[in-house]
Amino acid sequence: MPTNKIGRTFYLFVVAILALATSACGRYYGDTVPAPRSIIPRPIADATHEVVPRPFVTPNRSNSRRSPRHPANNPPPVRSMPPPVHVPPPRGGAATNHERDLMANSERATHSAQAYIPDITPATQQNTAPRELASHETEFNAKETNRANNIELAAKTINGHIVQPGEIFSFNETVGPTNQKRGYKKGTIFIQGEKHEGFGGGVCQVSTTIFNAAEDAGMTILERHDHSLPVTYAESGEEAATSYGGIDFKFQNDKPHPVVIHCVVKDGKVRATISGV
Q1: Centroid of chain to Cα 140
Q2: pTM flag (> 0.90)
Q3: What is the 3-state secondary structure of the chain?
Q4: For residues 26-49, average pLDDT
Q5: Would 239 disulfide with which of 46, 150, 206, 234, CB 3.0-4.6 Å?
Q6: How high is the pLDDT of residue 17?
């Protein structure tokens, strides 16, 4: 240390400057101020587990390692869908846009969805099975071959005949002349209360059988006649005598749909059926 006053003063000044500088450096780099935190943590001496540095995750890559909480590792639960509702196809005509949507997206259909039922048209009537309205059956003696022949011919001519709505059915016009040329044979006929032999004897049993079926089916009877003598296959008021060119049996179809007449002869019985189509 200098002995003179000026030198001692300068010495103390330098020491003070150095002390201040040392103190400032200690506060900045010393233990009292923590050093910057390292990105990779340093192992701890007294730790019981190994510290593994956290990997760097590259986002938006399919081969990147994801956290267990990442949405890709935790997809939302799959919502169970109700079973599809079956909508039967329409039975005729063109389906509407609504019906096509129901069939294409059946999972959206509700329990209140109803199948499309079109109106009955002539096109759909051809594909619809006839619905029986009424039937009637009478018996005859099959051993009377001529009469049996005439009954079978008349029934075969009428079988399958269709009567349109509002149309009038005529037995004489449908069967036609019952003469020898058309295959009819002589049988018993009634003329003004007397029995005679004439071609077509027995066809009145066919007209009588159809009359009873038509009446039970609700057809409007326009013309019907009793025989001049009692018959064995029907009571008075339930028979329909006919003669081509003379008396006739007629009814009108007042139904909103056609009807078909089926007339079948088998085992000594005549069966007539009126069905709607």
Answers
A1: 48
A2: no
A3: CCCCHHHHHHHHHHHHHHHHHHHHHHHHHCCCCCCCCCCCCCCCCCCCCCCCCCCCCCCCCCCCCCCCCCCCCCCCCCCCCCCCCCCCCCCCCCCCHHHHHHHHCHHHCCCCCCCCCCCCCHHHHCCCCCEEEEEEEEECCCCCHHHHHHHHHHHHHHCCEEECCCCEEEHHHHHCCCCHHHCCCEEEEEECCEEEEEECCCHHHHHHHHHHHHHHCCCEEEECCCCCCCCCCCCCCCCCCCCCCCCCCEEECCCCCCEEEEEEEECCEEEEEEEEC
A4: 50
A5: 234
A6: 80
Q: Are residues 208 and 272 in the same domain?
A: yes
Is the same domain home to 195 and 251?
A: yes
pLDDT digits (tens, 9 = 90+) for 164-192: 999 999 999 999 999 999 999 999 999 99
- 179 in the same domain as 204: yes
pLDDT tier at 141 (50, 70, 90 boundaries)? Answer: very high
Residue 79 lies in a domain: no
User: Is the pLDDT reported for residue 71 higher than 50?
Assistant: yes
Residues 105, 234, single domain; the answer is no
